[in-house]
């Protein structure tokens, strides 16, 4: 009985691996980027021109991939990053410290589509593009050098803060007493939106920033597209 159960488990794992979505990650920046990824992928180092791939199971929700910069890790994978740090480890188990440009996704299962976006709600650190491979669905690009144009009051080492992160008020964070119907864009969110029209610029920027693609699509994240 035990051997039969082991065989069934191995078969199910093999089927899941076959159905997994591949997210390709490419660094086209002239500097090293350490991608972080949760809940699948952990983290790695990509020197200029290097690529990696992450296998993501169908149905994975609230996935995030972001670029970390200015990192130093020892042989055991412990250290720190100037931007996007995820608790001082190479293989992330939690989200990155803002400011960080985020590729976000929830993979569908069965008849449900994938949802994906680029978010600047936590600020910006590295230019990024993100979208399905094959050209059948919309690819999002946030290629502008936002760091160079960042308002002085939002500047941070290696990145550009969001107004919510900087000021923490309901106006910028869309927190109570504001609601989805009463929280709208601000001059700061318009700054980000003007440079990256397809990216989330504040919490309820859904209509122009959330995209879908049929389940089963592979994806590509490119730093400095």
Automatic annotation (TrEMBL):
Q: Which GO BP terms, alphabetically?
A: defense response to fungus; killing of cells of another organism
> Does the keyword field hold Ubl conjugation?
no
Keyword vocabulary terms for this entry:
Antimicrobial, Disulfide bond, Fungicide, Plant defense, Signal
The disulfides recorded in the entry are 29-224, 71-81, 86-92, 137-213, 142-196, 150-160, 164-173, 174-183
* Disulfide bond listed as a keyword: yes
- Give the signal sequence positions: 1-20
Task: Tell me which CDD domains the record gives.
Answer: TLP-PA
InterPro entries noted in UniProt: Osmotin/thaumatin-like_sf, Thaumatin, Thaumatin_CS
Report the Gene3D superfamilies cross-referenced here: Thaumatin (2.60.110.10)
The entry sums up its family as follows: Belongs to the thaumatin family.
Please identify the protein, giving its name as recorded. Thaumatin-like protein
Q: Show the taxonomic lineage.
A: Eukaryota, Viridiplantae, Streptophyta, Embryophyta, Tracheophyta
């Amino acid at each position: 009985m035990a051997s039969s159960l082991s065989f069934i488990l191995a078969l199910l794992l093999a089927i899941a691996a076959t159905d997994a979505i591949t997210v390709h990650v490419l660094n086209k920046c002239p500097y090293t980027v350490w991608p972080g990824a949760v809940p699948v992928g952990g983290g790695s180092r990509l020197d200029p021109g290097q690529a990696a791939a992450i296998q993501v199971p169908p149905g994975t929700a609230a996935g995030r991939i972001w670029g970390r910069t200015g990192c130093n890790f020892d042989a055991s994978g412990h250290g720190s990053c100037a931007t996007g740090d995820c608790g001082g480890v190479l293989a992330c188990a939690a989200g990155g410290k803002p400011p960080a440009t985020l590729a976000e996704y929830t993979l569908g299962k069965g008849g449900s589509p994938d949802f994906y976006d680029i978010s600047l709600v936590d600020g910006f650190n590295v230019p990024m593009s993100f979208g399905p491979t094959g050209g059948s669905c919309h690819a999002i690009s946030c290629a502008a050098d936002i760091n160079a144009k960042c308002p002085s009051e939002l500047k941070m080492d290696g990145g550009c803060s969001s107004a919510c992160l900087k000021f923490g008020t309901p106006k910028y964070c869309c927190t109570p007493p504001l609601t989805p119907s009463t929280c709208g864009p601000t001059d700061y969110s318009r700054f980000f939106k003007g440079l990256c029209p397809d990216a989330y610029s504040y919490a309820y920027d859904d209509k122009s920033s959330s995209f879908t693609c049929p389940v089963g699509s592979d994806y590509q994240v490119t730093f400095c597209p």
